[in-house]
Design a protein that fits this description.
This protein is α+β, with helices and mostly antiparallel strands. It is 27% helix and 15% strand. The protein contains twelve helices and ten strands. It binds CIS-heme D hydroxychlorin gamma-spirolactone 17R, 18S.
Length: 486
């Protein structure tokens, strides 16, 4: 909706007489406080920024649709996955992780891949990355991990000592470090990368039968990555390169698309699989659980307004629909609290009322008031439950499915600690050229680390993943493989 050829008004709708000159007592006199238009303009201007996301601050978004190509009702009653041809509108936000709102797109970083499906049963948010795994596997470590990725509190500079100190003391990070320092850490564009739910989720069908599921969005554009020197050059010349590429592609009708596939694990397998399938630092073997087609996601409309639609978009792994539930993955469990808490802080308690976040279905509940309550706040309708006035009632058939829990309540880590097999598998999957680039990238990133004992600790991890991996990094850093590893 353009505002072309309309008359100019104040925020309260009154016509503005003069938008060029402040009101003064005489042409050389002081400005008058009664110039409400001036005061309003300056005061609103001071309040244009909302807090940027504490992670994933730099992002780009687009609208589109998801269409089912393979009915999933056998596994889930979630209507957006039921019935070939079923179309659901969606919005996606891509992002980097560590950089601030104005930082460069072409940096080595995971990319956020956050999808909001506006389903007929309410919104479903799948808030993933372009990597199938993550650096840590317990939410309690996340603030510390992100501190090491952000600026040193003293120098306000990125600090490689912190990065590698944390990673070398958290060996569960090795798989994702190998992924990040490899070619996929620098996607050529946002269109040429895959997306993943990363976590294990639970699907429940109409009969109440549950399976475990992992999501894979495979880009139709093909995976393409950017050489490190090119990425560095572009970061300086055009920090918004990925944002611009996505916008221009959609603007000219070159709509990017992804094929959604899932891995399905039978419910009982989770308790006898060779490693904990809820550990988000691990992938499931595609031999054990092959990829199954589900549908296609097409991005075909740019935001009309970046702030309204991208900056104010709020995604949460806790935004679920019937037939889709969470798993006991400790990272996912932590995220369920963190995201809505972040939204209430950053955008406000009523963030779900904003157009970009608002479900496309009726919302009927007893939540009232709160800052910026921009709808009718429930009008004169009944405002408590239970009630005998016909207010909205619960739907027992959509209770979360019950599941068994066992063991003592305690603060305890996952009991499997093989952080090396899958990192080594990934290294050995790489072509010789990819390995060479991986080694160069890691050596370059570790060189500035001041303390040799941090470097040696990390080299031990690389070595345990694959001796060649460790030896090449050690050689690049002019260090010997620590004795105790041999
Ligand atoms: Fe996030 N993450 N995260 N994250 N994350 C946020 O939510 C958090 C994690 C991801 O485009 C925040 O609204 C915790 C994994 C994306 O708006 C925050 C943990 C994965 C986005 C937050 C994780 C992600 C976020 C910051 C450890 C991939 C951007 C602002 C348990 C599977 C979404 C906000 C968008 C954003 C918390 C780890 C992806 C602070 C506590 C793992 C794509 O709430």
């Amino acid at each position: 909706m353009s505002n072309a050829n309309k008359h100019l008004t104040t925020g309260t709708g009154a016509p503005v007489g003069d938008n060029q000159n402040s009101m003064t007592a005489g042409s050389q006199g002081p400005t008058l406080i009664q110039d409400v238009h001036l005061l309003e303009k300056l005061a609103h201007f001071n309040r244009e920024r909302v807090p940027e996301r504490v992670v994933h601050a730099k992002g780009a978004g687009a609208h589109g649709y998801f269409e089912v190509t393979n009915d999933m009702s056998k596994y889930t009653k979630a209507k957006l996955f039921n019935g070939v041809g079923k179309r659901t509108p969606m919005f996606i936000r891509f992002s980097t992780v560590a950089g601030e709102l104005g930082s460069a797109d072409t940096v080595r970083d995971p990319r956020g891949f956050a999808v909001k499906f506006y389903t007929e049963e309410g919104n479903y948010d799948l808030v993933g990355n372009n990597t199938p795994i993550f650096f840590i596997r317990d939410a309690i470590k996340f603030p510390d991990f992100i501190h090491t990725q952000k600026r040193d509190p003293k120098t306000h500079l990125k600090n490689p000592n912190a990065v590698w100190d944390f990673w070398s003391l958290s060996p569960e990070s090795l798989h994702q470090v190998t992924y990040l320092m490899g070619d996929r850490g620098l996607p050529a564009t946002l269109r040429h990368m895959n997306g993943y739910g990363s976590h294990t989720f639970k699907w429940v069908n109409a009969e109440g039968e549950a399976v475990w599921v992992k999501y894979h969005f495979k880009t139709d554009q093909g995976v393409k990555n950017m050489a490190a020197d090119v990425a560095g050059k572009i970061a300086g010349e055009n920090p918004d390169y990925h944002t611009e590429d996505l916008f221009n592609a959609i603007e000219k009708g070159d709509f990017p698309a992804w094929r959604l596939q899932v891995q399905i694990m039978p419910f009982e397998d989770a308790y006898k699989y060779r490693f904990d399938p809820f550990d988000v630092t691990k992938v499931w073997s595609h031999k054990d659980y092959p990829l199954i087609d589900v549908g296609r996601m097409v991005l075909n409309r740019n935001p009309e307004n970046y702030f309204a639609e991208v900056e104010q978009a709020t995604f949460s792994p806790g935004t679920l629909v019937p037939g889709i539930e969470v798993s006991p993955d400790k990272m996912l469990q932590g995220r369920i609290f963190a995201y809505s808490d972040a939204h209430r802080y950053r955008v406000g308690a009523n963030h779900n009322l904003l157009p970009i976040n608002r479900p496309k279905v009726e919302v009927n509940n007893y939540q009232r008031d709160g800052v910026m309550r921009s709808d009718n706040n429930g009008g004169g309708s009944i405002y408590y439950e239970p009630n005998s006035y016909g207010g909205p009632k619960e739907a027992p058939e959509h209770k979360q499915t019950a599941f068994q829990v066992s063991g003592a309540a305690e603060q305890v880590a996952y009991d499997q600690n093989d952080h090396y097999t899958q990192a080594g598998d990934l290294y050995r999957l790489m072509s010789p050229d990819e390995r060479t680039r991986l080694v160069e990238t890691i050596v370059g990133a570790m060189k500035p680390v001041e303390k040799d004992d941090i470097k040696l600790r990390q080299i031990k991890h690389f070595y345990k993943a694959d001796p060649e991996y460790g030896e090449r990094i050690a050689k690049g850093l002019n260090l010997a493989i620590p004795q105790e590893v041999n």
